[in-house]
Amino acid sequence: MYVWPCAAVLAQYLWFHRRVLPGKAVLEIGAGVSLPGILAAKCGAEVILSDSSELPHCLEICRQSCQMNNVPQVDVVGLTWGHVGRDLLAIPPQDIILASDVFFEPEDFEDILSTVYFLMQKNPKVQLWSTYQVRSADWSLEALLYKWDMTCVHIPLESFDADKEDIAESTLPGRHTVEMLVISFGKTL
């Protein structure tokens, strides 16, 4: 459990857009140490952090991060991607879903998108703000996004000052190839 390079890039994107965050409902999936979600909470968003319900130590890390960063108002819930359970059903409509490097293992991609799709049914205007580290040219979300009726916009890192080897004095992004995506529901309303 540590801050992944993608978390620093997503946090930079949040900081760049911090003026839109106050009062927004924000859910971070696969939160881990929760840097993006905690930053969103510090910027005035109403945040829920989530990680696997099958990994209680991950949920405890989320809680500890909230405690150490003085954001006791942040809820922590267990969600297992691809499974509709009580906690997923209880999540209210969200404005923004954060996902930092959750597209890690290709076998999880569809479960992640099916969970996001379920959340998009509650608010079709929700956006998934996601960063991922390019690990293989063979891995692509495009076909799955089409299947789940989602659209994707690639956000150039230089558009929010995240194209440097160090962000906010952190060398975490380093020489990793990180992509920033904004994914939306494809249906027109």
From TrEMBL:
It comes from the Eukaryota. It is found in: Cytoplasm; Nucleus. Keywords: Chromatin regulator, Cytoplasm, Developmental protein, Methyltransferase, Nucleus, S-adenosyl-L-methionine, Transferase. The gene is Mettl23. It catalyses: L-arginyl-[protein] + 2 S-adenosyl-L-methionine = N(omega),N(omega)-dimethyl-L-arginyl-[protein] + 2 S-adenosyl-L-homocysteine + 2 H(+). Its main location: cytoplasm. Its EC number is 2.1.1.319. Histone methyltransferase that dimethylates histone H3 at 'Arg-17', forming asymmetric dimethylarginine (H3R17me2a), leading to activate transcription via chromatin remodeling. Maternal factor involved in epigenetic chromatin reprogramming of the paternal genome in the zygote: mediates H3R17me2a, promoting histone H3.3 incorporation in the male pronucleus, leading to TET3 recruitment and subsequent DNA demethylation. Gene3D superfamilies: Vaccinia Virus protein VP39. Belongs to the methyltransferase superfamily. METTL23 family. This is Histone-arginine methyltransferase METTL23. GO terms for molecular function: protein-arginine omega-N asymmetric methyltransferase activity. PANTHER family: HEPATOCELLULAR CARCINOMA-ASSOCIATED ANTIGEN (PTHR14614), HISTONE-ARGININE METHYLTRANSFERASE METTL23 (PTHR14614:SF164). One of its GO terms (biological process) is methylation. Pfam families: Methyltransf_16 (PF10294). It comes from Octodon degus. It is an enzyme of class 2 (transferase). GO terms for cellular component: cytoplasm; nucleus. Interacts with HSPA5, HSP90B1, TUBULIN, UGGT1 and UGGT2. Interacts with TET3. Interacts with STPG4.
